[in-house]
Each structure stands twice: as structure tokens, then as C-alpha cells.
Amino acid sequence: MKAFQIKKNGEPLEQVELEKPTAVGNEILVKTIACGVCHSDVHIHDGYFDLGGGAQLPTPAADLSMGHEIYGEVVAIGDTASDVSIGEKFVVYPWIGCGECEDCLSGNEHYCGPTTNKNLGITENGGYGEFVLVPDKKYLFSAGDTPDELAGSYACRGLTAYSAIQKANIKEGQNSVVIVGAGGMGLLAVKIIQAVYSINPIVVDIDDAKLEIAKSLGASHVVNSSSPEEAMMKIFEITGGATSVIDFVGAAPAFEFAYNLFGLRRGGTYVLVGLLGGQTTIQLPMVTLTARSILGSYVGSLSEMGELMELVSSGKIDPTPVEVRNISESNEVLEGMRCGKVNGIVCFTHD
Ligand SMILES: [Zn+2]
Ligand SMILES: [Zn+2]
User: Fold this and answer.
1) Labelling 164: which of 21, 158, 249, 342 has CA 20 to 30 A away?
2) Whole-model pTM above 0.90?
3) How far is 35 from 141, CA to CA, in rounded Å?
């Protein structure tokens, strides 16, 4: 089978020929129909996360087919796998753990350690290859009538947005929910907040083209934060101070801007999701005096995936448009994402 792999971090992905995996036991082999391109792929490809101040968190990878937003068709089933048939199509939950540690045993497989987990497309081969081996049926979710090119995006960006939204202390009907970053994850978050809370959130970005997409998907207001003071005033006028901010960027300027959006309002919740990188300082007494919560949110649990895919497959979440590219263009697309030049959601196909 054909796959595009990282051979050395930072160097272009290479097309390789690999042996097609065989499904044994509970394993299921899926043929990749479409695989979403998540911004994390850029970091995995680079081989590090930027911690700011010149520090890096290394994430070395070699001989890896990335791709953790997999939508595929079942083509082979291990002898003990049940409740699954050849030809069925599924979204694959990629945040697979060791199955033995405390986190895995308590339903938080996605928290399994970096050296023990078996995350597809991160530590194990994923959807940048033509076929992906999934260890168990429990990781497969129906996407109903969702377009093929979009379905996989719910496995990471959709799930990450869903889990962050769950943590953001949002109340139905609020007009003071702010999403920072109108990339793929921010756009999916707009649709999910609409479905779950009947809220059209405010969306902030520094790129008007991205904001335009957010507006067309139903953001109540879109605000360009290239002039932070002006943008802040605009959001204060709309909200009187944000109550929930979900940051899908995760860079120092975005954090500083977004954290200030609460103003002196008490009890706000800030959920940090993006991994662009950097560091910042926080005035400690202000955290106490404003009774503010600052939380990190990392992907989502298997049960959250079940909840999200229930909403998706029952048609409660409006589809987001997706640009389809061939996997042979993967280096170009990753470079575009690295420079912030990719708008909306992109997926790869292998045909
Ligand atoms: Zn991802
Ligand atoms: Zn584990």
C-alpha cells in the first residue's frame, strides 16, 4: 500500500510502499476514504512544540504516516471482531491508549502517556496511508449522512472543539461566548455551539478571509483583532465582558488579547486549546479577584466522541465545507498551514 511518511522531522514527507496490514483478533482494517489535515500535523511534522523563549517540547517522529482524522471503509475484520461488516464506513477515534494505565482504565484513554499511547497518526500509522489498522470496533463511529470529506474532521478538530465547549461553562442563549481563531477547529466549534447551546458565538481572528467564512457559518459577530484595543472595545460593546472564551490559537498575543476580554467581569472561563506556542505572564491577584478559571483542553474522551457522533449522525450539526486535496499534495498543504495560508478545512484523499 501507498503511504506518505515523515522520514525526518521538518523534511518533506516521502511516498513509500508499505505492506498492507492484516487484521487479527479484534482488529479491523479500514481503507482511508478521506483524512482531515489538522494543524497538529504541522507540529508533528516539525518535531516539536514551541514553548516560547527559545524552548521546545520535542515530539520526534520517523517512518510515520500521520493523519489522525480518518474516515474509512471496513475492508478486513479479525477473527474475534464482532458487530462490524465489510463495506461499512466509519470515523475512527484515534486517541487510543495502552488500555492498562489508570487513565485508560478510567475512561480517559486520550490522557495515556506519550510513550505508552497508540494514537493513530501520532505514534501509530494513520490516514496518510491507504489503509489503517484499528485495534477494536469500539473506536469506530458512524457519521450518518455527513459528507465523506468532512466526517474524519470530527475525530480531532470536532472532538477537541466539543470537549472544550463542554468545559467552557456556557449557558444556553448567552451572547458573550467568544471563539478565538477561525481556522478549521474554530469553524467546527461555531457549528457545535449552535447545535448544543443554540448560541451564535463571536469569532475573532486576524485574517478577514477566515472571518468571512465564520460569518457565513453563522457567527453572530466577527472581529478582526489586528488592532487589539479596537477589537476589545468592540467586543465589550457587544458583551459587556466575555463570560466564556475558547482559544483555538494558543499563542501569546492571542492569549493576552483573549484573557482581557473578560474585563473585570467575575467568573469567566478561559479554555486554552490551540498549540501554536509561546509563553506569557499572568497578574496573579487578578485571577483570584475575578474568580476566573483557566483550563487546558486536550482532544476528547471516547465517551465524548460517542456524544458528538450521536449529534453528527443524527444531522444536528450543520456540515462545514471542506476542500479536498490529493495526498500527493501533502507537502504543499502542510506548508500552507504552517504559514496560515489555508482557509477552512482541508482533507486528503488517496485516489
Ligand atoms: Zn488534530
Ligand atoms: Zn494507558
Assistant:
1) 342
2) yes
3) 15
